[in-house]
Amino acid sequence: MHSLPRDLSLRLDAIDGPLPDPAPFRHAAVLAPLLVEATPGDGPRLLLIERAGNLRHHPGQLAFPGGKPDPDDPDLVATALREAWEEVALPPGRVTILGRLNPVPVPTGYVIIPFVGLVDGPFVPTHAEAEVTAVLTPAIRRVADPAVYRFAGEREWQGQRYELHEFQIHTPPLWGATARIVYDLLQRLDLAPARPPEAP
């Protein structure tokens, strides 16, 4: 994949579309930043963080920048942009929000709302060491490679069935809620690795 589809925003859910009531959970927001290289190379990249090992929730896991809303955040887009600024020093003014991906409930009591954002120009992240151990910028074509993908089955939780995906792009691998968000994005880019066929 050497460029993003011109109609990507149309493939995503509306930024301000209605959201289901998360009760008894609460909303959280993440930003899925897309980095586009000015010169030919591996094509567009994702920006992921490796969460610090001392954090209360999801220590050491790969994730997108994000978190729960602050009282001063006017909306969830503002939450996602603020968290990206705090965690990797991504200026909000350099991000164009293209749309939303499917909400993802997690056992910590939140429903994550992922926003896809296009980063304007070259960007060199600087991570907040208290929250972030490292920043990864894997090429989308690498994440979409079937050789690094594993379908880990389905589970049911709180009455909802969901799929488990794993991408062996790092140690630890990309899994959990963030892997579900990434797989959703790859599906909308027509790049999702094939899942094994269902048993008859």
From TrEMBL:
This is CoA pyrophosphatase. Residues 25-160 form the Nudix hydrolase domain. Its cofactor is Mg(2+); Mn(2+). PANTHER family: MITOCHONDRIAL COENZYME A DIPHOSPHATASE NUDT8 (PTHR12992:SF11), NUDIX HYDROLASE (PTHR12992). It comes from Nannocystis punicea. It holds the Pfam family NUDIX. It comes from the Bacteria. Keywords: Hydrolase, Magnesium, Manganese, Metal-binding.
